[in-house]
Structure formats: structure tokens, C-alpha cells
Design goal:
This protein is of the alpha/beta class. Helix content is 33%, strand content 29%. The protein is globular and about 45 Å long.
Length: 271
């Protein structure tokens, strides 16, 4: 029997008009809708049987501000499963402070792309298991990439973006995944800008391309519409974990619903 697959709820956190932390849900990182309180949602998912929990400060990098560590600390007090925190992490000092606030792992996107040595430094100082590299990737149908996949009969590559998908970088996501692995990343968080919030399924070609090109555990993210999508990204793309937000936030499915669906189809999950 292979390793068990992980089901990971995620909250996207921003500051509301009063400067308070709140959870938001949107489509393609836009049209964000207030969804709830991050601390209360963390408590609920901990009790619901989630394997891990992800807290993403979705505007910290774009706004050039620090991650909301006071909220991270309160969330950490409510969860007794591995907690990953991302957003606004640019230096080894940021990694240290986020871990001190209660995170078990940090997810880094912009900071690592701008300074790849941060991956080496983070892995050496805190252990590879703490360093999750986020690939916020989008499809490009041109000839400027390095690694190509067939999507709907066309050849495309996947470009890394920064600032919540707002800016392209010209960096091939598969090539960057390979480099991040070599530098010591412990996990790869594959987030599809095209699929985000659509509930039309994970970007299987993107996830498969990263899984087949690296040996580091891959977390698939963006686009989950139900248990069948989780099953597909595990069996067709080879992901080690599946992250979902909307289907859990709005009560369409529970973590147990997803695990039961997978268990019935002989996909090993944690119970």
C-alpha cells in the first residue's frame, strides 16, 4: 500500500475595511467574497478531521506588508494538525517569526522567486520539512517555456506568477519546481491561477507535469468542485495531497465526505 493521501482545507485571509483579518473566497483571485473568521474556521476544520490546514495571507506580498502573525498565532492555538502559513514571507527572519507564531511550515512564492537562495537558507536553518514552495502557475500557449504539456489538443507551458497571480515572471513552473527541489524544498504547492475558484477540477496537466518532473511531495490546489476532482488529481496526476476551500467553506462537502469517497475507490486516506 502506498502512502496515504492528505486532504487539506485552506483559508485565504485578507484585512477587511476595519483592518481585521477575515477569510475571503473568489474566482481567479478576484471578486472576493467575505466567508468567515479565520480562527473559528481553523477550529472547525481541526475538529472535522482535516489532515493539515493552510493559512494564506493573500495580499501580503502584493501590498509589501508583513504576514498577520497575531492572527496566525490565534489560529495555531486552535489546530493540532500541521499548519502551513504563506504570504509576505521574504527572508529567513520572516520564516523564523512565522514558525515562532505557531506555523509548522511556511509557503513561499514571491520571496523565493526573487531570491532563490532563500530556499537553501530556509532548508538549512529550519529543515526541508518546513519549506513549502508555492508555484502560482498559469497556462501560456506560446514558445517561451521550457517544459510543455498537451492541454485540449494544444501545447502549453506553465508560467510562475507573483502577487496573487497578478504578475507573470517568465519563469517556467516545472523548471522552477526542479530547482526548488534541488535547493532543499520539502514540498511543492501547485496552485493553478486558471482553475482558482472555478470548481471545474484541478489543473491535472499542470499537476502531472510537476509530479513527473520531481520527487518532492506535491500538494494540488485550485479548482476543486467535489470528491471526484480529488480522486482525479490523485490517480491521474499523482498528487500526494489535495487542497480545497470553497467546497468545504460553503458546506457542499465535508472532509469526511471526501475521504469516504476516496476510501470506497481504494485510495488510501488517513482516518
Amino acid at each position: 500500500m502506498g502512502l496515504t493521501k492528505r486532504i487539506i482545507p485552506c483559508i485565504d485571509v485578507d484585512l477587511d475595511e476595519n483592518g481585521e483579518a477575515a477569510v475571503y473566497t473568489g474566482v481567479n483571485f478576484e471578486n472576493l467574497e467575505h466567508t468567515g473568521d479565520p480562527v473559528e474556521m481553523a477550529r472547525q476544520y481541526n475538529e472535522a478531521g482535516a489532515d493539515e490546514f493552510v493559512f494564506l495571507d493573500i495580499t501580503a506580498s502584493a501590498e509589501g506588508r508583513e504576514t498577520m502573525l497575531d492572527t496566525v498565532s490565534r489560529v495555531a492555538d486552535q489546530v493540532f494538525i500541521p499548519l502551513t502559513v504563506g504570504g509576505g514571507i521574504r527572508t529567513a527572519a520572516d520564516v523564523r517569526e512565522t514558525l515562532r507564531a505557531g506555523a509548522d511550515k511556511v509557503s513561499i512564492n514571491t520571496g523565493a522567486l526573487m531570491n532563490p537562495d532563500l530556499v537553501n537558507e530556509g532548508a538549512a536553518s529550519f529543515g526541508s520539512q518546513c519549506i513549502v514552495i508555492s508555484l502560482d502557475a498559469r497556462r501560456r500557449f506560446d514558445e517561451q517555456g521550457e517544459h510543455y504539456a498537451r492541454v485540449d489538443g494544444e501545447s502549453c507551458w506553465f508560467e510562475c506568477t507573483v502577487k496573487g497571480g497578478r504578475e507573470g515572471t517568465g519563469v517556467d513552473a516545472v523548471a522552477w519546481a526542479q530547482e526548488a527541489e534541488e535547493r532543499g524544498a520539502g514540498e511543492l504547492f501547485v496552485n493553478s491561477i486558471d482553475a482558482d475558484g472555478t470548481k471545474e477540477g484541478y489543473d491535472v496537466p499542470l499537476t502531472r507535469a510537476v509530479c513527473e518532473s520531481t520527487g518532492t511531495p506535491v500538494i494540488a490546489s485550485s479548482g476543486c468542485g467535489g470528491p471526484e476532482d480529488v480522486h482525479e488529481v490523485f490517480t491521474d496526476a499523482g498528487a500526494d495531497a489535495a487542497l480545497a476551500a470553497s467546497i468545504f467553506h460553503f458546506g457542499e462537502y465535508t472532509v469526511d465526505d471526501v475521504k469516504t469517497y476516496l476510501d470506497e475507490r481504494s485510495v488510501s486516506v488517513r482516518r
